[in-house]
Design goal:
2 copies of one chain form a homodimer. By secondary structure, chain A is an alpha/beta fold. Chain A contains 18 helices and 18 strands. Chain A has a 6-stranded mixed beta barrel with strand order 1-5-2-4-3-6. In chain A, helix 6 crosses helix 12, helix 7 crosses helix 15 (371-380) and helix 17 (428-437) packs antiparallel against helix 18.
Chain lengths: 504, 504
């Protein structure tokens, strides 16, 4: 059937084309069926939404991405045909039936997600089947490679390529720029790509972009990494493992991140930039993705097994995550804390220790003995800060950048203790909820500054934490949530304190 | 945030509201998140699609159903807020984790699907979890009751209420009007609601509507049933177990029908019309929903256990379904075959036998001895035909209706045998594919007429089947598929024939 294409912009993985009920009926198409659209000898398959509100009979609404692929513009005529379910649906069904998938079947599913041939319904079924039935290491390795092959790769002329990944889930984890700066200062190359927050209050890219540009293209990333030794880039601005972004949109409302998907997603980005050595940080604690040390050990084993299959030397570090890392949560607050440590501040020690321990492991992977000590020297001597500033400037930041430039939101609320005792618990999830209510990560000044950490003594009226916001309405919203959730637990007796807790 | 509502019509369970990127950002909303919309002291929760193509900043596209619920019209101002995930998502997660759900949790999920609070992504995850992890009989009973309670009920003044359901999956199964007519002729009441085709070539309502109106409201259905003794209505025109329609839209592209969902869906409609006695036909054979007798027995056990929980007397009949029932597949072709049997035709005997056997079981459930013999008498004597005509007329059909009125499509293609031998197999799925390619069920004249059945001898050039279509293009499409799929398997030796096969 010949139809007039009407261009629509839409971010949805799903909303690919819209037809009137009459045209859908004439084509024998039901809601959620697919059509094949042909023009200029190109073709694309898309899922159909049926509605009479957006186009006339004889017209078809097509998302911009497909318009580009077919090289057509608004008002052009296209040929539209019914298209049967893609073969990859069979692969999804097979995983639903808990059978092992071949590497071709996995590749078919990944390719069809990238090509928008699978609808949100099918992607959701796929993720649910992965969540319930899982994959073995061989399948995950094939999954990783399929994710790599459906995107771009970056090939460095300089080797080895070191990389670092934190599984996340712990708020305030602003160590990445410190780790990269120390490793690069030691003469190794660490081209780090990070993500923005999905469900957290602040991803690495969310705070790094408050002081320099994170949206680098592949060429710039390669150039800076090879010349300066490191970058802190946003992974999303390159076409690396693009399937991940489409999958995240479906994972997000379900609140799941199936193990196979998570592992393949992390490692595909590392394979795509040709990482030869990778350190994975596994933050472990209540209210994170990894609640117990046993779960952390299982992930570590998975990562190392996958590293073997994929030809990457992988080491893992299980880190303490029962409370936020450092004191600051939120873009500008985290940026300020991060930079102040590079400038020489001695607090918060949890950030300094974690950054130096992890950078130290990477240095040792690169053949430098006594890595943690060396890392600390590079930080204390200011050499890491000098390297940090080189990277910042290469990424378009100001050469005179100082931590003092990062001024958090002007609307502030102090939360004080109504009781005396010891801080028994700081709930990661509640801290994140409050920071998000205050506007983080899109409001750059929003967030939380902790004034007490676990194990510390507080008296009545002592400041526990401050909420920052860029506007009054969101501050109010965050205050309401803080009152409801009470992220601090204070007890009069130390007897219940967990002995592993570090007192600061 | 105050926004101007713009009405859109859309059939999608999902496409509930659309926001511009700017407004979504201001509300802190990502794709697939939810908003709560308030107006006139009413509120509705809906899933968000983000696009700048369909409305301006400051506007929100709202589907007609929600417009009605809020009692607003195009151009009215509504208040829009971010809305957290509904609690029912937790229930879905719990089933993903293979835990037993409480009756309240099941009710919450069903209610949120009916209220459009769950997106296609979440409904897909729910169905996938049900498919993989299943439900026990207690959960399915609660599921059934939740589906009943979220829709309307019909209460008959006349009891007992007999009902009949075929699990379907076998093409050409046009027995329903015959069964209903026989049972009503015997003085029992059978208010039968049927469905339209989902993935088959012709549902009962698809062929019944070629000779009378099937879209009855609840009041009319009750009146005709009580006065005449039976109806053949389309279940979709009443608000009975409305969640089913929303779920089908998600099941369809996945090609799954989880056991728990199927059982609850069938039985909810029976509970909603107050059925006291139910006969379930379980067509069993290659290419149907129930491939083997063992699977059929398991379903029969499920139905009877559920009947006990729900207070309905349920019996099951496992019927032969290795090939189509009778010779006709497609709306007008099936209607013609069905009516001709009521008029006294002695062929095809498979249809007559199946209808009389099943009607006989229902008669016995109603205390009539020797049911199958009695059923055959009612059919042969013309009493059932008289009752059939009473129902047809009550449903707005012509009082002089004859099978000759049902004229199939004028475009016909004869498929002949290129080899001599015995018909070893007729593939149900391929027959359905060809009939659908010819235009069934929306083209009423489209379909297939079989001239040979399993076990019969054919010579070279003998007519195997005819394809009917309402237009030439679809006939061509069906011919192409017939050539590719070859639904008949003919072998030279009888030795491979399954002994249970009836030779006709």
């Amino acid at each position: 059937m010949k139809l007039i294409a009407r261009e629509v912009d839409a971010d949805a993985a799903d909303l690919a084309v819209m037809l009137t009920e009459a045209d859908a009926k004439a084509l024998g198409i039901k809601e959620n069926d697919r059509v094949r659209i042909e023009a200029n000898k190109e073709s694309a398959v898309a899922v159909v939404v049926i509605s009479d509100s957006f186009q006339k009979v004889g017209e078809i609404c097509v998302i911009d991405e497909i318009m580009r692929r077919l090289d057509i513009k608004d008002g052009d005529t296209v040929e539209v045909f019914f298209s049967a379910n893609p073969d990859s649906v069979r692969g999804i069904r097979k995983k639903m039936d808990n059978k092992k998938l071949s590497s071709d079947e996995i590749r078919g599913i990944v390719q069809d997600i990238v090509d928008s041939k699978l609808s949100k319904i099918e992607i959701s079924a796929w993720l649910t089947a992965l969540y319930i039935n899982g994959m073995d290491i061989e399948e995950i390795a094939a999954f990783t490679e399929a994710m790599v092959d459906t995107g771009d790769r970056i090939e460095f002329d300089r080797t080895p390529v070191f990389d670092f990944h934190s599984m996340g889930g712990v708020p305030g984890n602003k160590i990445t720029p410190i780790v990269v700066s120390i490793v690069a200062a030691a003469g190794l190359m660490l081209p780090k790509t990070s993500s923005r927050a999905i469900s957290s209050a602040c991803g690495t890219s969310d705070f790094v972009e408050t002081f320099c540009n994170v949206e680098l293209d592949a060429q710039t990333l390669k150039m800076i990494s090879e010349e300066v030794g490191g970058v802190f880039a946003w992974g999303g601005s390159m076409n690396i493992a693009p399937v991940d972004d489409m999958v995240i949109k479906v994972e997000h409302p379900l609140g799941i991140n199936p193990r196979a998907q998570m592992l393949a997603s992390i490692l595909s980005k590392k394979v795509a930039i040709g990482a030869t050595h990778l350190l994975v940080d596994i933050p472990t604690g209540k209210g994170t993705k990894v609640p117990t040390i046993e779960v952390a050990r299982a992930y570590a084993r998975d990562f190392m097994d996958l590293g073997e299959q994929l030809g990457i030397h992988i080491e893992c570090a299980i880190t303490y995550a029962d409370q936020p890392v450092g004191n600051a949560i939120g873009p500008k607050l985290e940026a300020r804390e991060c930079i102040s440590i590079l400038e020489g501040a001695k607090h918060p020690s949890s950030v300094i220790e974690k950054a130096c321990d992890l950078a130290g492991i990477i240095l040792e992977m690169g053949g430098i003995v006594n890595g943690a000590v060396k890392a600390r020297e590079l930080l204390d001597s200011g050499v890491a800060h000098k390297k940090f500033m080189e990277i910042v400037v290469a990424q378009g930041g100001r050469p005179d950048l100082s931590s003092k430039d990062l001024v958090p939101g002007e609307f502030v609320f102090d939360v004080t203790s109504s009781t005396a005792g010891y801080v028994h618990d700081i709930d990661n999830k509640n801290i994140v909820s409050i920071a998000k209510a205050a506007g983080a990560p899109s409001d750059k000044g929003a967030g939380i500054l902790l004034h007490r950490k676990k194990g510390q003594r507080v008296e009545v009226g002592d400041l526990l934490f401050q909420i920052y916001a860029d506007n009054e309405a969101k501050l109010q919203r965050a205050k309401d949530i803080a009152t409801r959730y009470r992220p601090f637990e204070i007890e009069g007796m130390l007897i219940k304190r967990v002995t592993a807790t570090k007192v600061r």
